[in-house]
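Think of the structure tokens as a kind of shorthand, similar to the way a musician reads notation: each symbol stands for something richer, in this case the local conformation of the backbone. In the example below we present two proteins back to back. Begin with the first one, reading the sequence and then the tokens, and try to describe in your own words what changes along the chain.
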Amino acid sequence: MNPSACPPEPLPDRNQAVPELVGRHEDFLIVAGLAGTARDLTFLSRDAPHVFALAGAMGSATSIGLGLALARPERRVLVVTGDGELLMNVGTLATVAVMNPPNLAIVCVDNGRYGETGYQKSHTSLGVDLEQMAIGAGIRTTRRVTRPDEIPEASRLIRDGNGTSFVLMRVEPTESPPHKRDLDPTTERLRFRAALSD
């Protein structure tokens, strides 16, 4: 049988892949991007105060994570964001690469959709490669996850890397867990600030 005639393997389901990749969420200070990743992480952590989940602040997750990693070098900082949110401020990857904090990991959950604005196809479904953009920006350690068996290595990378790491995890365009979030910014800011001093 011609290998090129075989249908491609299905991408991981985010509802299994994100929890497996993150693992013990308490080990990190987490900045979650918009829409799907915000629901992924608040559902996974049961709204734990060490998870700062964004809403409407398009393109801010990586910048916030970088500032947090520089301000708290003794803590592991994890940014989990989507392809749409990252595309809105992809130039931040260049600043991340130049600063290269050893305690920062960025995970892009790429479902090829703009989940915050109506689930339209995003640029990544049309050929844009965010891992290559991270490499071009100068981030030295990257991984691509397209199969479940690639998740454990990526999970180790976000925990043990010495220097900023970037993981692009391609997932099926399925819904995140249906989780009702507290969208009051003052409450979230105060909760997260308290978690910084723990």
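Once you have a description of the first chain, move to the second and do the same.
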Amino acid sequence: MQIRLPRRESAPAAERCELCSAGVAAEQPHLVEPRTRALVCVCDPCAMLFAEARPDARYVRVPRRARSLDGFKMTEAQWDALGVPVHLAFFVRSSPADGVIALYPSPAGAMESLVPPGAWNEIALENKAIRAMAPDVEALLVHRVGDAREHLLAPIARCFELTGMIRKHRTSILGSARDGADAEIHGFMARLKAEARVAG
């Protein structure tokens, strides 16, 4: 299943809140619609309206900051059991699906699959931080391209940013990235890790 990506960013002066049409900064907040996983760019005042998650709310506010996962544990067998066909993916606890969804980049955009509950629970038992992962808005980002073994809790907006970057290169990540995407992926992960704080 292919899902909708956030619309391409334009110059900061042209950015508008998708709820009230007010101008927004380059680093604008985002909301997500859990049912469709569509992102909405909003201004700070509109984002404040969704600061507290409500069960009946159409949108949920996306956090801005990634969190590093020191000492994250996952064996090769556990990774294989997740059933993801590529080496770069993010995993979201989906309220509508009542389970964990794996989303991964492809030349056609973000693809998704439902993660086997037993496979996810086995990893979660050894990693307390992902058991407290905020549903719908926060993702476990796993980077295993080449020799990389990187794991972060990242805002879903940043994960879709990475997906859009890979789509731009129209490259496969079934093995190692090519055509300049490899450097961009490593650079993106380095920036995200620099921004992150350690998850408790």
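Compare your description with these statements about the second chain. Residues 34 and 193 are 26 Å apart (CA to CA).
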